[in-house]
Input
Amino acid sequence: MNLFVAAFGFGLVSVSVIAIAAVGFTMQFGITNMINLAYGEVMISSAYVAYYLNRVGISIWVGMVGGALFGAVFSFLLNRIVYAPFQRKGTSYIGMVIVSLAVSLMMANLLLPIVGAFSSSYQNTGGSLVRIGNITLTTNQIAIIGLAVVVMLLIHGLLTYTKLGKAMRATSANPTLARNCGIPTQRVVDVVWLITGALCGLAGVVAALNSDSFAVASGAAFLIPIIAAAVLGGAGQPYGAMIGAVIIGLVTELSAAAWSPNYKEVVAFGILVVVMVLRPQGLLAKRGAMAAAG
Amino acid sequence: MTNAQVYYATNLLVYAGVDIIACLALNLQFGLSGIVNFSFIVFQAVGAYTAAVLSMPPDSANGAFQTYVGGLQLPFPIPWIGGAIAGGLLAIPVGLVVLRRLRPDYQAIALLVLSVIANTVITNAVPLLNGAAGIALVPPPLSDQFDPNTINYQYFFVGLTAIGVVLAALVASRIVNSPYGRSLRAMREHEIAATAIGKNPVQLKMTVFIVGGLIAGLSGAILVGFIQVWAPSVWLYPETIILFAAIIVGGRGNNIGAILGALLVPVGFEEVTRLLVKLNIGPPGLIPALEWVAIGLLIIGFLWFRPDGVRPEARRVFEGAPIPEDVANAG
Output
C-alpha cells in the first residue's frame, strides 16, 4: 500500500509536467488548427537551452526562463516561417500533420550533432527530501507541482478575465466570425504561438528536470502522454487537457508501481485507444475528433 | 564483375524490390485512399517477425542465446505467406479502432503513437521476440536446399524478390484501375459526396487497409529472409516517413509514381549516404543525421513546390463526361 501512496506522489509530479505541456499543445490545436507534432522536439530543444545555461553556472530555475523564452520565440518563428505559409496555401489538415512530422524529424536530427548522442542531466543541488505522510518528494518536485498550479491559474485567468483570452476563445470557436467582429485574429494567433511556445519550453525543462537524464530521443517520448492527455480531455480544450493530464499522470505512475515502469507510455496509449473507441470527441469537447475538420 | 560488385548489385536490387513493394502498399493506402498510415513500418515489422519465427528452429537451438515465440521451422513459401497474412490480420484491429469514427488528422496521430508504442512494447517484452537485441540467424528461404553463401543464391534471391514485386504490382494495378479503385479515389477527394452516392467509406478504408497490410507484411518477410536479422531499431517510426517521402516525391495515387519514388528516395538516398559516409566528413553520425534532415526538407519542399510529385496522378476523363473547363466556359 505504501508503494501506491509513494506512486501517487510521483503521479502528482507527472500530472504537473504533463499539464503544462498538454495545455500548450491543445491550445495550439484549438486556436491555430495545427496538430504540431514537432512539439516534443521543441520541448527537448528548450531543455537543452536550459542545460547549456545551467552548465555555465546559471541556476536551473533561471535556465527554465531561458528555456521558456527559447520555446516561445522558436514556436513563433516555426509558425511564421513554415506552418502559416502552408496553411495560407490551403494545405489539407493531413498535409499539415505530415509537414509538422517532417519538421519534428529535422529538428531531432539537427539537434543530434549539436548536443551529441549521450544523455545529459542538469547540475542541480537536487534539493532535500520532504516527507508528507508516506509521500516523499524532493524540493525540486514540490517546486514543479507549485509551478504547474501557478501556470494553470494564470491560463485560467488569461482565458476568463482578459480581453486577449476572450479574443483567443472567439478565434478558436469561429475564426471568420471573430475577424468580422473586429478581432485581429492574425495577431491573436501570433500571441498564441508565443504563449503556447513558452508553455512548451517550460514543460521541456521541467520534464528534463524531473527525469534522471534526457537525450534527443526523449522528445518523442515526451509527446505520447501529452497527446493522450489532450485527446482524452477533448482536443483544443485547455481545461480538458488539465483533466486529461491528471488522469494520464496518475494512472501511468500507479501502473508503473503496480506493473513495470517500462510500460508507462503503453498505459497512456491504452487510455488513448479506449477514448478513441468509446468517446472520440474527448471528455469535454463539443467539437472534437469526429467533427469535420474546420 | 568481381564477386564484391555482384554482391553489391544484388543487395541493391533486393533492397529496391522490398522498397518498391512497400511503396506500392503505402500508395494504396495513402496515395489512392488518403489514409495517413504513420504506422506502416509496424506492418512490415510484423511480417518480418512472423516470417522469422515461422522459419527458425525453436529458440533452444544455438545454445539458446536468444528467446522468441514460435520457431516452427516451416518450409519456404509458408513463412512468406505467413508474414503477409500477419500484416493483413494486424490491419483488422488497428483499422477497427482508428478508421471508423476518427477524423483524418486524428487517425494520423493515433497511428503515429501506435508505431512508437509497438516499438516500446517489443523492446521491453524480451521473451516475446528477444527485445532490443532482436532476433538473428533467420534462415534464408530454401537454405536447406542450397548454400546461401554463393553468388548463385544471390541471383536466386533477386528472382524471388522480383516475383514479390510483380505480385504486388499486379494487385496494386488491379485495384487502382478497378471500379473499387474509382470508389477509393472518390472517397479520398470528397468523402461525404462518396457516401451520398452509396459508397461505404469505412468498408472501403478497411479493405484497402488490410490489402496494404498484407503487402507490407510480404515486404517485411522478404527483407528478413535476406538480411537474416530483425530488431526494434530497424523499424522505428522515421522509417515510415522515408516511405511517405517516396510517395510524395514520386507522385501520390499512381503506381508508377510509387515505384519511381521508391527508387529515388529510399534506394537513391541510402546509396548517396553510403558514399558520403566513406568520405569521413565531420564527426561520426553527422551524415546519417543530415540525411534525415534532408528527408524532412524533401517532404516540405515537394509539398510546397510540387505537391503532386515527379509524376502526378493522371486526370481521368471518361468518354462523354463534360470536362470541367468546358462546363465553366459554357456557363
